[in-house]
Amino acid sequence: MVALQIRDVPEPLRDQLVALAQRRGQSLQAFLFDLIRDEARRQDNIAVLKQFSPVAWDVAFTAVDVQVALDEERAERDSALTDREACE
């Protein structure tokens, strides 16, 4: 196995990570290992998806992009429901 070291981590960040690890019942080392492993797995998944699909899986959407899309879909749904109720 290889040892990794991260330098210059601000104490408040370290404290937050320790608290998150404790909530999961893990040591900080186990918690960080899980985070790193999960991130590597996601990148592997994206690579596999790219091989079999023309969809861009690594597109980053902002919270605003998501909110706008949700608002548009909800407006369309509400309009369709209103039209259906008017016909009944």
Structure, described:
The longest helix has 25 residues, at 28-52. The chain is mainly α and 88 residues long. The radius of gyration is 22 Å and the shape is elongated. Helix 1 packs across helix 2. 72% of the residues lie in helices and 0% in strands. The chain is built from 3 helices and no strands. The model has no long low-confidence stretch (mean pLDDT 86). The protein has helices at residues 11-23, 28-52, 63-87.
Order of helices and strands: HHH
Count of helical regions: 3
Distance between the termini: 68 Å
Mean pLDDT: 86
How do the strands and helices of this protein lay out in sequence?
Layout: H1 11-23, H2 28-52, H3 63-87
What is this structure, in a nutshell?
The chain is mostly helical. Helices cover 72% and strands 0% of the residues. The longest helix is centred in the middle third of the chain and has 25 residues, at 28-52.
